[in-house]
Amino acid sequence: MSDIQDSASNRMKKSIANLQEELNAIRTGRASAAIFDKVRVNYYGTPTPLNQVSTISIPEARSVLIQPFDKTLISEIEKGIQTADLGLNPSNDGKVVRISIPALTADRRKELVKQAKNIAEQSRIAIRNIRRDANDELKKQEKNSEITEDQLKVFEEHIQKSTDNYIAEINKILEAKEKDILEG
User: Fold this and answer.
1) What stretches of the chain show up as alpha helix (H) in DSSP?
2) I want to staple 146 with a disulfide (CB 3.0 to 4.6 A). Which of 8, 60, 137, 141 is the partner?
3) In angstroms, rounded to a whole number, what is the distance separating the alpha carbons of residues 154 and 159?
4) What is the pLDDT of residues 12-50, one digit of tens each?
5) Contact present, 56 and 33 (Cβ < 8 Å)
6) The whole model's pTM is what?
7) CB–CB of 138/154 below 8 Å?
8) Angle, nearest 10°, between helix axes 2-24 and 106-143?
């Protein structure tokens, strides 16, 4: 039985990690290297993550400096950033790519908060689906007389408690990201 609980807990942890990764990709008013995590650059015909072909630094709160390991990649890095649809305009001086992070408008902030809420809701749904799968598995075990009805209730309560904790964690993460977006 603990296998089912452990499996559900591990899957829920992965959902939280995925949520944090997704939310990191949403830009706030401040520069962050994390917003470039999903940017892919055509590196000799292979889509490669930007952070594997360059160094990304944040010299100031609203600027990003991308220094490619190979200077011939500058135009590919610019293309990758533009196709990633981050709303950023890269410029280069032949050696590095500079990006100025514009201040977010009130409307854009509202859009980003809405996007963050949608991502958080998808995570909540994933957590609930994991709970459902675990409960279904437990009911099968009870039906096959592998566990008693009392054990089933205890295990279901434990899984529900885990679900509640993870959903509370999602809400806390979302609240922090909303604050970050609105204040940024």
Assistant:
1) 2-24, 50-53, 74-83, 106-143, 149-183
2) 141
3) 9
4) 999 999 999 888 877 776 777 888 888 888 888 888 888
5) yes
6) 0.73
7) no
8) 170
